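#struct-pred
JK: can someone run the complex with phenylalanine? inputs below
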Amino acid sequence: MQDLKELNETISAIKQEILDSAGTLTSSRGVYEFKKNFLDFKKGKISQLMKEMRNIPNEHKAEFGKTVNAAKNWALDFFEELDQKLKAEERKHRYENEKIDISMPAVRTTYGNLHPVTTVANQLTDIFASMGFEVYEGSEIETDYYNFTALNTPQDHPARDMQDTFYLSPEFLLRTQTSAGQIHVMEKKKPPIKIISPGKVFRSDDDATHSPMFTQMEGLVVDEGITLCDLKGMLDMFVQRIFGENTTTRLRPSYFPFTEPSVEVDVSCFQCGGKGCKLCKGTGWIEVLGAGVVNKRVLENCGIDSEKYRGFAFGIGLERIAMLKYGINNIKMLFESDLRVLDQIDD
Ligand code: PHE
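RT: done, structure tokens with the ligand placed:
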């Protein structure tokens, strides 16, 4: 290169080449690569022009330098502008692709729930545990002795007819009541005793409120000086926690061979507050459990001194509590696993 004229021509050609590229470059990455052809410190066409400086006569050196620098700045600006434009397009394209329609209905995640009877069992266990009861789990297969005889219900006792029993053999049966657990506990443990025993029980019984398999929770307290008042006080606390603060209990005389006296326990209707409604059949009261003072004979059958110790026991049907709490009118609904029913029960 000899003179400025030639330089200007070269620069014009380079500029044209760069301008032409604008139409073909489509990405920021492409601009970066293409730019190197002109501005790379070693090989770039514009950078190399500077190296011609030594062939230029001294009086033209300043002008030459200025012209090359101007071309370099022009190229830098051009590529910067093109780069920004392409980057904006790339961003726009990405946003379009990643666009989310926030008005679309969300995918509904369904969660499993505990079975209503399990939920009730857990709630009751928590309530009784907070009163100091321990949990004893008995077995579903029992002997006739534990399910009946030791509970003051010998073979020919008419009370056996109260519970239609599934016998496995003359000796073994499916327990008809968690009361069988009372005997096991009293044989093993000496007073003071304070246990609950939840579990499945079985009776040949089947209608809207009875199922051949259902769940009970037994309670047993044995200590010196226990009276029916202790039972009543504990039951009042219990119903307040499960059915609401304004509920109370009343005891009605009843009969169980293993308690004397025996009572049927009603809770004041938590729906109408006692005025009378459909749920309580207009009476203001709902029957919830059976209970009583442990019969002396039962204590003696377990080797507990019946002069020194007294006890009370109660048995709660958990399906019945679940049906009352969740407004279910047929016990079968608890065992049919119909999601339309179970979905509505969330406690
Ligand atoms: N076992 C009795 C029943 O199943 C309930 C009950 C338990 C009654 C404890 C009194 C004491 O009907």
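RT: quick notes.
The two ends are 91 Å apart (CA to CA).
Residues 58-97 form the longest helix (40 residues).
JK: thanks, will look after standup
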